[in-house]
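Practice record 12: protein with iron/sulfur cluster.
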Amino acid sequence: MGIVKETLDSLVITLKNLARKPVTVQYPRERRTMPERFRGVFALTTNPETGEENCIGCRLCQNICPSQIITVIPEKREKRSYAKDFTLDMNACIFCGLCVQVCPTDAIVMVRANDEVGYSREDLFLTKEKLLANEKKYQDLISPMTGSVLRNMQTPPRPAPRPRPKPQPKPEEKKE
Ligand code: SF4
Ligand code: SF4
């Protein structure tokens, strides 16, 4: 009796699922929209108005990277600093996102691409040229979670200070 009930129960579950919309997507013709905070690959950004690189070569990303895979060579030009060279070896990246989080100019960002692959180690060694090209290649997939957005989320604005209580007048001294 038990085996008949269990068989019927499983048949009911199968029939219920036949009517459900499939969750499988027909990749690569269809692609899922990855979450805003998805960490897939990196890009270096430029100013959309002037076309200038946003990286100022401050090396904060290099210094914070726990895997020590970022190398920045800064260069001072007329008005500001740049990264003369910038490399990121994605072979050893743990996708912690710290480099993005500390960047003061939102120059390094994550891209929500989940199918960036390489056939050799060199393919995953990101040069400055590759990182700058990724901004255009993945322009619709650049994560909105830039360093400034992430920092604001971590340190929300402080509440307004409470008004101080007014000083009370001292009680008059008793006369003898
Ligand atoms: S995500 Fe983390 S490990 Fe990868 S490059 Fe950035 S700081 Fe380094
Ligand atoms: S990517 Fe950002 S943190 Fe890294 S060197 Fe450039 S400006 Fe500094």
